[in-house]
Design brief:
The structure holds 2 protein chains of 2 kinds. By secondary structure, chain A is an alpha/beta fold. Chain A has 9 helices and 12 strands. Chain A has helices spanning 8-12, 53-65, 78-86, 151-164, 181-189, 200-206, 242-253, 255-258, 260-267; strands spanning 28-32, 43-46, 70-74, 92-96, 107-114, 124-129, 143-146, 177-178, 195-199, 220-226, 232-237, 273-276. In chain A, strands 2-3-1-4-11-5-12 form a 7-stranded mixed β-sheet. Chain A has a 5-stranded mixed β-sheet with strand order 8-7-9-6-10. Chain A is elongated. By secondary structure, chain B is of the alpha/beta class. Chain B has 12 helices and 12 strands. Chain B has helices spanning 2-24, 58-71, 117-134, 146-154, 165-175, 225-237, 242-245, 255-263, 287-293, 324-340, 343-347, 365-384; strands at residues 106-110, 138-142, 160-162, 179-186, 193-201, 216-219, 248-251, 269-278, 282-286, 302-312, 316-319, 355-358. In chain B, helix 3 links the parallel strand 1 (106-110) and strand 2 (138-142). Chain B starts with a helix and ends with a helix. Classes of the chains: A alpha/beta, B alpha/beta. At the A-B interface, helix 6, helix 7 and strand 12 of A face helix 3, helix 10 and strand 12 of B.
Chain lengths: 293, 385
């Protein structure tokens, strides 16, 4: 729970409407689990009330870009931030993956931080031979990857994506690693490996997907395509207007350029910059893919 | 003054050659002009200077550059090839509190030519996305020529456009921060660059750039980053002075035209763009793969013998006078596209996995300096003659 709410009555006025656009008179309240990194105690503050220079810089920057007042609700934990959102006391909230399910289904992710490895969260393609058996019966050790640099892109995030699908909890073994995409394709076609997972760029390049006249992967079947789950994300009510969301995306993806002090505070050394995110970026997806029919 | 007179003469000569060709060829050399703004603002004319019609020597290339610098684009009206309309641009009234009261239509530039189906589909998709995001009509203005986009944006006839980094450097030189780069594409490895490559015919004897001494080379356009500005800088970094190294150099007018001119035997080599890869991995996209996918060439007929880069990717550039809310909606909508609509990347002729990153002028600092250096060099060469 929040330790104190200096602007409790003010926050109480905030009633998020299901309507598309926030009225200009309404405050934009952002719940952030950053109380421990701020000079201000936990609670909700208008930008003029913040004493932490980084927090104030962030609120001031958003103030300058939106006609609405900005209120930052600083919490100790992600769960508290999620609770504010779930109770309708926040317009946006920054939460951990583990708190995503505590939000109503009417909330969505829309921003994450880009990791220092520079790779972001690229989409992956999980595939098998076109005549594959039910993909849910594919054993961990029967899913091949390409072992190339950067390992984070070709192996680690690929397996994180599989874990999000509930397909494996194990680390990839040496005999699942192939030196290049052609070798992986050959192994699957020969039946030596049941399935494979590649980042969608490598899949697209090797399957020549930009060329409608060519289909070198016609004997392979895509079972699932999606990004690995995000560790943390900024969330917003899904029926908030896209215009409002786009403006928030724009302000945040350029925050490190346009308001470095603000970015440094909200980032807390967790990433290089904000990047957009898909609506279900925080959710595991064991039921999304259906496997082979 | 002598150089000014020489340059003016060159413009007049060029005009005669253009008119001569224009009168005898069914191919359009000059598209419709951009709208003319008020007094004192340059006219904008779209020219497609094709190498096979305008065999420019190195000296003529220099003259052309000087002509552009000295004469300005209004002088090109003397060619008698421009037409102007009085269609107003986005009218920006005083702040009324709602940007929609200020901007009724968004004008977007595109260098996609009408025979480039993928590029047209790409710009059409962006048009749809922005119309849905902003709720206002987005009008697309096409140009076959880099300069058309540059001058239209600089003159305030366009609100937004994608353009090469070198073209943005040109815009920056003209209007500074009145137009700002806001987004570039970023690949799956996190890189936001592409490459300039020299391509020769596969059956030619040329294996490296050193085999091209005293041979002929087609550039793309004076304002092309990968097709002119960057490779010339990179060659100099390697100790090659492009102004004297090649027997003859010319502007082909576009990347496609460059390859066609090479295929037709008009040049020994040409400079074109390549992306989705590195010199080590090979390139999955770029001028050659794109033409091969369209069935216009066979990849095996060409060989890439030199690459330079990475060059900063082409930015979306917006006029700064657009209301901040609108600029944010546009940037947010485009940046969200790979996440909201994953299939859109392929629809736009791009491999999945890339996204967009926010940029500012600093991202293009090197290209801005390169262009300045190139122009100074041309001025010095012209003065020395």
């Amino acid at each position: 729970m929040l330790r104190c709410i200096p602007l409790g009555s003010f926050v109480g006025l905030i009633a998020l409407s299901a309507a598309a656009q926030l009225p200009r008179t309404e405050a934009i309240t952002i719940a952030l689990p950053l109380a421990q990194y701020s000079k201000d105690d936990g609670g909700c503050y208008a930008s003029s009330e913040l004493t932490d220079p980084g927090a104030a810089a962030y609120a001031d920057h958003l103030d300058s870009r939106f006609a609405n007042r900005i209120v930052l609700c600083l919490t100790e934990t992600s769960a508290e931030a999620a609770a504010l959102a779930a109770n309708g006391d926040a317009t946006l909230a920054w939460i951990d993956q583990s708190d995503a399910l505590s939000l109503p289904e009417t909330w969505r992710s829309f921003l994450t931080l880009r990791a220092f490895d520079g790779l972001g969260r690229p989409p992956y393609v999980f595939f098998a031979a076109a005549d594959a058996i039910d993909a849910r019966q594919i054993g961990d050790e029967q899913i091949g990857v390409v072992s190339r640099e950067p390992e984070r892109l070709f192996v680690e995030m690929a397996f994180e994506t599989l874990q999000d699908l509930g397909l494996t909890q194990n680390a990839v073994t040496a005999n699942q690693k192939y030196r290049d995409v052609s070798s992986l394709f050959e192994a699957i076609r020969a039946g030596d490996m049941s399935a494979g997972i590649l980042d969608a760029n490598a899949w697209g390049r090797n399957c020549d997907i930009l060329n409608p006249a060519s289909n070198p992967c016609s004997d392979l079947k895509v079972l699932y395509e999606g990004r690995p789950r995000a560790d943390q994300a900024m969330v917003i009510e899904a029926d908030q207007s896209t215009e409002f969301r786009y403006r928030m995306v724009s302000v945040h993806i350029a925050l490190h350029l346009e308001a470095p002090e603000a970015f440094q505070w909200i980032n807390q050394d967790r990433g290089t910059e904000f990047q957009p995110a898909e609506h279900d970026a925080l959710l595991a997806r064991p039921t999304i893919w259906s496997g082979s029919e | 003054m002598h150089r000014v007179r020489t340059s003016l003469c060159f413009v007049a000569r060029l005009g005669r050659r253009l008119r001569q060709y224009y009168n005898t060829s069914p191919n359009t050399l000059v598209d419709k002009a951009w709208s003319c703004p008020g007094d004192g603002v340059p006219l904008v004319i779209k020219l497609t200077l094709t190498a096979h019609t305008l065999r420019l020597t190195n000296k003529e290339v220099d003259d052309m550059m000087i002509a552009r610098l000295v004469v300005g684009f209004c002088s090109l009206a003397a060619l008698g090839l421009a037409a102007c309309s009085s269609e107003p641009t986005a009218e920006l009234a005083s702040d009324s509190g709602d940007w929609r009261d200020q901007v009724k239509t968004l004008k977007m530039g595109s260098k996609a030519s009408e025979d480039d189906a993928i590029a047209l589909r790409r710009i059409g998709l962006v048009q749809e996305v922005l119309e849905e995001a902003t709720g206002i009509p987005v009008k697309i203005y096409q140009s076959n020529d880099y300069n058309g986009i540059i001058q239209a944006l600089a003159a305030g006839q366009l609100d937004i456009s994608t353009m090469g980094a070198g073209s943005y450097a040109n815009v920056y030189a003209q209007i500074g921060d009145d137009a700002v780069p806001v987004l570039v594409r970023r690949d799956v490895f996190g890189a936001s660059g592409y490459y300039s490559t020299i391509v020769v015919k596969a059956d030619s004897p040329y294996q490296t750039i050193h085999d091209l001494k005293d041979q002929t080379l087609a550039y793309v356009d004076f304002n092309s980053t990968s097709g002119y500005i960057y490779p010339r800088w990179a060659m100099r970094e390697e100790g090659i002075e492009p102004d004297i190294y090649f027997d003859r150099a010319a502007m082909a007018g576009g990347h496609i035209q460059s390859i066609m001119a090479l295929a037709n035997g008009q040049f020994d080599a040409t400079v074109v763009a390549a992306n989705s890869g590195t010199p080590e991995t090979g390139f999955a996209n770029g001028t050659l793969p794109r033409l091969a996918r369209r069935g216009m060439i066979d990849l095996e007929d060409f060989r890439t013998i030199w690459a330079a880069g990475p060059i900063p990717n082409s930015p979306y550039v917006m006029r700064s006078e657009l209301p901040q809310e609108l600029r944010d909606i546009i940037r947010g909508a485009i940046a969200s596209l790979p996440y909201d609509s994953p299939g859109a990347q392929v629809e736009m002729g791009r491999l999945p996995g890339s996204d967009y990153r926010a940029v500012d002028k600093d991202f293009f600092e090197l290209i801005i300096r390169m262009r300045d250096t190139e122009i100074k060099r041309h001025r010095q060469l012209a003065a020395a003659r």
